[in-house]
UniProtKB/TrEMBL annotation:
Homotetramer; dimer of dimers. It catalyses: L-aspartate 4-semialdehyde + pyruvate = (2S,4S)-4-hydroxy-2,3,4,5-tetrahydrodipicolinate + H2O + H(+). GO terms for cellular component: cytosol. The active site is at Y133, K161. Its EC number is 4.3.3.7. Catalyzes the condensation of (S)-aspartate-beta-semialdehyde [(S)-ASA] and pyruvate to 4-hydroxy-tetrahydrodipicolinate (HTPA). This is 4-hydroxy-tetrahydrodipicolinate synthase. Gene3D superfamilies: Aldolase class I (3.20.20.70). It comes from Ectothiorhodosinus mongolicus.
Amino acid sequence: MFHGSMVALVTPMNSDGSLAFEALEHLLEFHIDQGTDAIVAVGTTGESATLDVAEHCEVIRRCVQLAEGRLPIIAGTGANSTTEAIELTRLAMEAGADAALLVTPYYNKPTQEGLYQHYRAVAEAVPMPQILYNVPGRTAVDLLPETVDRLADISNIVGLKEATGDLQRAAELVALCGDRMDLYSGDDPTALDFILAGGKGNISVTANVAPSAMHQMCAAALRRDENAARDIEAPIKELHQALFVESNPIPVKWALYAMGLIPDGIRLPLTPLSQALRAPLCEALRRAGITLKA
């Protein structure tokens, strides 16, 4: 349903932590101009954990309005409460989002049966396309391939963002359910190989700062032109690591600020990028051919 480079969009904030909607508009236009294939609004990179429900829904609504149908908007609506996830997903559907991205319930560590029942309940309650999101490094729970296989039979569960970076897992998922749902990488360093193994795209942090290159790389990988894809990725490959020198989205928000695209706001408990890491990140951006503000 959704293919290519999908940016896990940051949520721009002013220095006082308030939402910076003018910057959000500029980011949407930037991504449309640069060829980004879809926007993921208010996911992990969008600081969903620190936005209240009204803010969460307003960012989704603004993204839908600003996009004007020029590219799909996928709304992050996951929660560790099934009731809350249903509420957020319903609100995203009412705001006009094209799909919802639902992270596994974090902290309370449900069983595989609990994960299955959680996702089935959301899918049955809200009739919109839904994408599962597995990132055990942040949630402390792993959505196993056999559970994904069960969920693939639910008609409006259309995809999975698999952020483990495990290419063996990717191959297993493609074999199990790649004919019933679209599989996406959620790990920039292994995204190219994930797509070559049968994935349909990448939900990317790097695409925030290098959207054109990520779009072109994904397109080449999708048409199985591996040499071209690796050539396109080479100049930006360092960014896949540089943007994770501290917890995401700390480095990528600082990078976008250094590029002059957003204000420098971020919400506690996240803090601005450590002073000692700023110059090395700027150097990595320059080596990738990215222009920074004076």
